[in-house]
Design a protein that fits this description.
This protein is an alpha+beta fold. It has helices at residues 3-23, 42-53, 60-73, 84-95, 122-126, 149-156, 211-224, 242-252, 296-306, 358-370, 417-424, 427-444, 449-455, 461-471, 482-510, 515-526, and strands at 26-27, 80-82, 97-100, 103-108, 111-117, 133-137, 140-141, 163-170, 173-180, 182-185, 189-194, 199-204, 229-233, 258-264, 267-273, 284-289, 311-314, 322-328, 334-343, 387-389, 395-397, 406-407. The chain contains 16 helices and 22 strands.
Length: 527
Amino acid sequence: MGNKKLQVWLPLLFSIVMIVGMVFGYKLGGGKEFFRSNRQTPLQEALDLIRLRYVDKVNTDSLQAGAIQEMMSQLDPHSVYFPPVELKEANEDLAGNFDGIGVEYNIFNDTVNIMYVMPGGPSDRAGLLIGDKILAVNDSSLTGPAVTSARIKEYIRGERGSSALLTIQRGQDIKKISVARGSIPVPSIHAAYMITPTTGYIKLSKFTQNSYEEFMQAMEQLLKQGMKELIYDLRGNGGGFMNEAYDMADEFLSGDKLVVYTEGANSRKEEFRCKRPGLFEEGKLVVLIDELSASASEVLAGALQDWDRAEIIGRRSFGKGLVQLQFGLTDGSAIRLTTARYYTPLGRSIQRPYDKGKKVYMDEIWERYSNGEVLYADSNKVNNGKKFTTPGGHIVYGGGGIMPDLFVPIDTATFPAAVNRLFMDGKFNSFVYRYYLLHRAEIDQYKSVKSFADSFNKVGLIWDSFVQEASRDSVNLRSVTPQQRESLQLRLEGYLARFRWRNNGYYQIINSEDPMIVKALQVIGSK
């Protein structure tokens, strides 16, 4: 069952799920207008009493924040309080941009290495290059074992127009370069390309404020290239702004079809319907989902499934169907409060039960791995899920995420523990990075991902280099199975393609052996 691989990746997946629950799935709204009463509550009275009469000096702000967090913990798993220091970053996650210097980096050997410089961005204009090492920002050191991604982000991000004085190492030279921070776009579409002469592919990572605009640009480009079918990949997409999902659904559904409706004890029923002719109302459509597809992803997939518009392939989605509104508090903090539930056009509730508490709720994702749900089709079901019938006569289920029409199990191909450590310790990434720097001229001469995939590494040079590199860490790659070697080589090529063509290149390489993509192409070909 590939338990070793699951043990390696489950902690990461679980942390992603926790973040999904706290960050994504809300729509803009709320504000301070709700707080009209000047009457003190018992909570405020208690805080005032502590401040005025308690025996020792205490930080009542932290007491207040703790009290609010405790209140949130008594509600559903997705209502959350953000202190002021955390709110800016939480909002940036869905803004589609942030203020910074326009580089991607990784930490190798306690040093910050520049992996990518955004063309035309602040660092590109200042003259930074891939391969440069950042030693300090404004004379604050960024080397040594204490360097973390959070610390780097703290120093290189900042107010737009402000300057960051970088001390960088280029080869043996040390340089100081001043970079004026600017707005850095963060694309939510990680890939959009023609996977066959008539089939397009789009990978959406989350629903940010700019996702619909990005989606339309990608769709128009693919249609110009002859797209007649589309594979829409929502795997790992934890959601985001719901209006972006509504607008995307409108491009696939005709007439004034209902996309979703919301309703809550203190929120009247509100329907969201198609409003305009769509860009892709007739072409064949396949949507890919998995256990980390949540919220807006589930709303979109559920609407397309209810109207028999798309074939849903993959595994049961996360099961988050709650609406959050964000309300700002007077101290600069905010609450994202669940105010309603989402329902698909047929009236299905997407939300999983959470009446047994947050821990049990979150642990249910773990249980899908341990009970075999992600491995076997007959385990891929919602116990006691209510049945609904689509206009086309298909049975669909409510009460716990979106059930796919076609099940594809999780890939359980395992590597030896020593090989997994190369990934977990960052040594795989470090090797690919250094290999690219040494062979950049050769790799950059390829004009397309296809030409790169067809001809690069046919003599196995990168594999031989990787085997030698791994041997320095006492990892014998010559003992891996042919299947394991093929999988590792595919990752090596995918990571190299990412340097040349960004995520678009990575996914074109990796998707060539992806079981869900293979199944999607089979479905499209059989229709």
